[in-house]
Structure formats: structure tokens, C-alpha cells
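Cobyric acid synthase CobQ: structure, please.
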Amino acid sequence: MKTLSFVNNKGGVGKTTSAQNVGVALHRFAKSKVLFIDLDAQASLTRCFGYHNLHFFNADSGSFILNDKTFDEVVISTDVGDLLPASMGFLAAEERIRASAVFPFNLKIALDKIKHRYDFIIIDCPPSLSTSARIALVASDLYFVPLQAEYLSYEGLRNFLAFANQLSMICPHLQLGGVFATRYNPKLKRRLSIDLVKSTKKQLNEQFLDTYIRDNIAIPEAQASGKDIFLYDPESNGAIDYYKLTRELINKRFTKNLMEQLMRA
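Here you go.
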């Protein structure tokens, strides 16, 4: 079992989109059992699964982490895996999580009870260096950082990697799985974007992934409809790019058997 976090302290870079569609690809094509965890009070990942009325939930991922509710009381089963949703009440939960005696190991301790049920746990974090990001990284084996190819996103990446490196001092198992470009297409010949990607790749070497995610209208349309990109439009650039990204993640970070499963899909 591997726990993967998709993180960035800047919003709008494709973090939630990547968490959803990489997780779905692992389920659909590699036949993996996947648990999705939404740790953002904005509940973007929860909405991407089609749950727009957040008042519907009387429990969320915060309730599970704080042991106010059992896992089975909170988890939602979907066609592509299980989901621990977020809600607007998560902000209050964050305060209690931060004040607890076991912080920042809260999520790791909670997941130890149920992780045997899954092949992958996928965590979507808020766009900040917050309590949620801290507990997610401590609970993770690998973290992945989507990078929008623009100057402010590039500057934010350096801050985030410094933050994650500090946490790795208390969690030696935590590793950077990779950084990848989103809303990027070198064929458009936008010089600043191309230069930023080249510069980041030079600094990170093999930790900067080869696959990039192109801007694609099908992605926000899929999210608005509560569907993943593979179900909404399997022929779209978004579906093609996220399939390639998932193959690269597996090829570089996971087992040969899992890669063979994905290759056969």
C-alpha cells in the first residue's frame, strides 16, 4: 500500500484534478483499490465526485481523523474507489487537529487502522502550508507537485519544497515523487513557460516528470458534471495526458507488475 499526496501552496495549478484523475487511472487501468481523501474545506475533490451539497454530510474526513466518527461512518463508495469527503466544517476540525497531542501524526495514525484495505491512498490538500498539508505529508510515502508554468507558481514551488524538506526530518520515509507541469504545451511556444519548465527540470533532474498536462476544456467540464476525465471524454487530451502521467508515475516509482497491468489496459 502506498499513500500519495498531491500538494502545492498555490491554488489553480491542477492539484485536485491530478489527485482525482491519477487515482481514477490507477483504479480503472491498473485495477487498484483506491481511497481518495479530501483535506480541503473548500471540498473541491468532493465536488469533483459529484457531491455539491456539502450540508449533506454530517461527517467528513476531519471527523475520521479526530476519531469522532468511524471510517465506515464517513467513507463513501463510488464507481472508481472510496472517498473520504470534506465539508465546510473541516476548518473547525483543523483547529482541533493542530491542538492535539499527536499532531502532526494524526492522519497517519488514523490511516494505520484501515490502510490494509487499499493499494493506494490519494490525498488532496488545500493550497497552503497548513495543518492539512502537514498531516498529509507526514502520512504519505510520496508527494507530487503540479506546477503551472508561470512565474508565481515557480516561486511558490521553491517555498513548498523547503517546507516538505523540513517535514522529511521527522518522517524519513517521505519522498518527493515528482513535479510535473500543468496547463502547459511547448508547441504553443510561450517563451516564459518553456524557460520555466526547462529551468525547473534542470534543477530537479529525474524528479521533474516528462509528462505534462495540456490545457483542455474537457477537464473543467468533467469536474462540473461530477465525472472523471476518462468517463467524461476518454479521447480528450486531458484523458490522454493523465493516462500517460499515471504510467510514468508507476514506471518510475512502483512495481514492475503494476506497470504491466497498466500497459495491458
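Notes: The CA atoms of residues 138 and 171 lie 6 Å apart.
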